[in-house]
Amino acid sequence: MKKFKSLILPIFLFMTSLCFSNTLFKPGTYVGSAQGYGGPIKVEVKTTDSKILSLNILEQKETKGISDFALKSIPKEIIENQTLGVDTVAGATFTSNAIIEATKNALKNSGVNFEKISKKIVKDTKTEIPLLDKEADVIIIGAGGAGLAAGVSAYENGAKSVIILEKMPIIGGNTIRSGGAMNAVNPEKQKKQGIEDSIEKHTTQTWEGGNKVANKKLVETMTSNALDGVKWLENYGLKWKKEIGSVIGSVWPRTNQAEDILGTGYINTLEKAFSKYGGKIFLETKAIKLIEKDGKVIGVVATDKNGKDIEFIGKKDYCYRWICC
């Protein structure tokens, strides 16, 4: 009997150690914060003894439109992969790192061994894009303001299918980070504010502002069509502020300002229009070279997020294949 009792205690201790070896956290709800791009990011993390149940962002002052993807994807990836070793979102690195750091700060009181929840994610390299999704009448490189506008315009001019390749995990390019101002002579609004203006004045001021280096005819083409651009965007749903203003560095009040912050209004409007036409955008797909045949560009080679090369080809039965950068 004594021998039996002496065996029970070691076995019990061994089994107990096995149970606790699977324990990562002290179950509970934890709050932490870290400095983001626009200010502190505060998160709430809920855990069981073995996993992170939820990760919610309680407070943040990040730039709308630029940080949106990171604010959604980083918590989701941490939960799905049960690790803080997730990739940051290009273009929103400050926000991404702040979410990860805030989560880490929150979990400091959970008793976790951070080495066990910091393993890097191994990416799936088996994803295959169907052949039909790699062919289009028009292939555009870059999902910024110019690329999205080109995509919408292509559909307006008869294209049946359009693909946009974007190297970043989010659309917007430089446009989404811009001040959202668009200079155009707008007589209807300017007259109400007592502002006298003309295409000639806009052309001359723009040309002189560039030290007269630009081709003045091209400057005139831009200024003459600027109001059409304002109305074109408005037709697709962009909301403009009621009054004409001016931005830093401008010499005349002719700024048409979108209601949405920065350039988010332009991008959201164009993306919505492009999607409505049926356009496809491939994110984290970086164009690396053009494909040429018989002296003509017929497609693009791009690298996806897993480092795999993909060929996107202009349809042979179509009368044009556009590659817009």
TrEMBL record:
Claim: Signal is one of the keywords in the record: yes
Cofactors: FAD
Family annotation (SMART domains): FMN_bind
Keyword Ribonucleoprotein: no
Keywords, ordered alphabetically: FAD, Flavoprotein, Oxidoreductase, Signal
Gene Ontology terms: cellular component: membrane
Signal peptide, first to last residue: 1-21
One Pfam family named in its UniProt record: FAD_binding_2
SUPFAM superfamilies linked to this entry: FAD/NAD(P)-binding domain
Residue ranges of every copy of the FMN-binding domain listed in the record: 36-110
GO molecular function, one term: oxidoreductase activity
Family the UniProt entry places it in: Belongs to the FAD-dependent oxidoreductase 2 family. FRD/SDH subfamily.
Protein name: FMN-binding domain-containing protein
Organism: Cetobacterium somerae ATCC BAA-474
Lineage of origin: Bacteria, Fusobacteriati, Fusobacteriota, Fusobacteriia, Fusobacteriales
